[in-house]
Amino acid sequence: MPHHTNLTAILGALAAASLLAGCSRSSGGDSSQPEPAPVAPAKAGPAQPAQPAKQAPAAPPATPAPASPGAMGPDGLPAEIPATRSPVPTVAEWAAVTREISVRRSSPLGCETKMLREWLRVSCRGKNDVGGTPLAVKALGGCTSDTYTFGSGGITSLVTPILRGRSCDASFSWSHGGALLNIKWPSGAPRPTIAFQG
User: Fold this and answer.
1) With contact defined as beta carbons under 8 Å apart, do 137 and 150 qualify?
2) CB 193 within 8 A of CB 169
3) Is beta strand 111-116 parallel, antiparallel or unpaired with respect to 193-197?
4) Which of 82, 143, 155, 157 could be 123's S-S partner, Cβ–Cβ 3.0 to 4.6 Å?
5) Are 149 and 160 in contact (CB under 8 A)?
6) What tens digit of pLDDT does each residue of 25-54 get?
7) Backbone CA torsion sign across 160, 97, 65, 87
8) What's the rounded Cα separation, in Å, for the pair 111 and 196?
9) Under a CB-based contact definition with an 8 Å cutoff, are residues 172 and 160 in contact?
10) Pairing relation of β-strands 119-125 and 155-161?
């Protein structure tokens, strides 16, 4: 039966071909499926300029702290001399001032020199360097109406305000001569000058 044998051979060949095709699909995948489209990398935009870091607002300039009461300047006078007027100090207020200011020639003449606020007091007592005792004091040119003088019992004293743009001269006398006290504070000068002349 050769015809039957040929048919069996043909059917076997077809089965083998089908089996091979199935294996081919399993191992290689479906070649009919489209390949996924490649994804293009995202394009970087133009570089943004770096933003400058924000700085904190500058602090306002520091205001110099006011000088402490009793602080002295390099010239030997109070560090601050008020521009505003105040009442004349009392005897008790003067007594509470323990530090003297620098007034040229005041020590040889035996004079105590103090300032309180804008007020100056010059008091001379006892014998001076040449043995003279205080006799009198007189306010001369430039002194304000708020200038006070005293002379008695071997003590002479002057109390006057120190004011910018003003000057004041006062004559002190002793049993052995005298001296002129000169107080000057020109408008353009930062500090006054106070000194005994002669």
Assistant:
1) yes
2) no
3) unpaired
4) 157
5) no
6) 444 444 445 555 555 555 555 556 556 556
7) negative
8) 10
9) no
10) antiparallel
What SS3 class is residue 3?
A: helix
Q: In the chain, what are the domain boundaries?
A: 100-197
pTM of the model: 0.65
Mean pLDDT on 81-91: 95
3-state helix, strand, coil in the chain (%, to 5): 15, 30, 55
Cα–Cα distance, 3 to 88 (Å, whole number): 153
Distance CA 19, CA 7 (A): 18
Residue 178's DSSP bridge partners are: 173
- Neighbouring residues of 113: CB distance < 8 A, sequence distance ≥ 6: 100, 101, 102, 103, 106, 120, 121, 122, 194
Which structure tokens are listed for 11?
Answer: 């059917």
Question: Which of these, 18, 195, 189, lies nearest to 104 by C-alpha position?
Answer: 195
Structure tokens at 152: 């008695």
Three-state secondary structure call for residue 86: coil
Tokens representing residue 115 in the block: 């300032």
Contact between 133 and 177 (Cβ < 8 Å): no
**102 with 77: CB under 8 angstroms?**
yes
Cα-Cα end-to-end distance for the chain: 167
* Token pair in block for residue 147: 């200038």
Topology classification of domain 100-197: Immunoglobulin-like (2.60.40)
How many C-beta atoms lie closer than 10 Å to residue 181's C-beta? 27
